[in-house]
Amino acid sequence: MLLASALMLPTPVRADDTALGKEMESIDSAFKAFRRETDPAKGAKAAREGQEAVLKSLPLVPAMIAKMPAGEAKDKAIAAYRLQMGQLFVVFCEVESAFIAKDIPTVTKLVETVKGSKKKGHDDFIEDEE
Ligand code: HEM
């Protein structure tokens, strides 16, 4: 069975098999923990956990970009990836501040911003399956 799988065509890289995929799981848990939270201390803690995972994601390179041949297009893609990750970090800091200020309406707005960042990040940096 192992031999059979070893001989099969290369299996597509599953996102959660990569170091970045693992950090994304942490980002996902942090986001789920704060998106409906109303307790300031719990929300701020989850936002900080999200920040930590974003910092660990920042130096990593998405599988889609890693496959590209060296050159300007690859440099451009890596720079765009870091820019979006940096923006996500800023949003998670804003979420933390909003919780500390007990400003739940602002948290609710920021949750929508995070959803947009996720969609854009995934549209730009994850290859369509099939
Ligand atoms: C809060 C926002 C985000 C959440 C909750 C999130 C969540 C996830 C999850 C759960 C995965 C695992 C793969 C899957 O099964 O879909 C994943 C993968 C991935 N995400 Fe995100 N994500 C977010 C934002 C972003 C952003 C902003 C970017 C890019 C700037 C990004 C880039 C990627 C990439 C490239 C992968 C595939 C892993 C790889 O290529 O190694 N994500 N994400």
From TrEMBL:
Any idea what this protein is called? Cytochrome b562
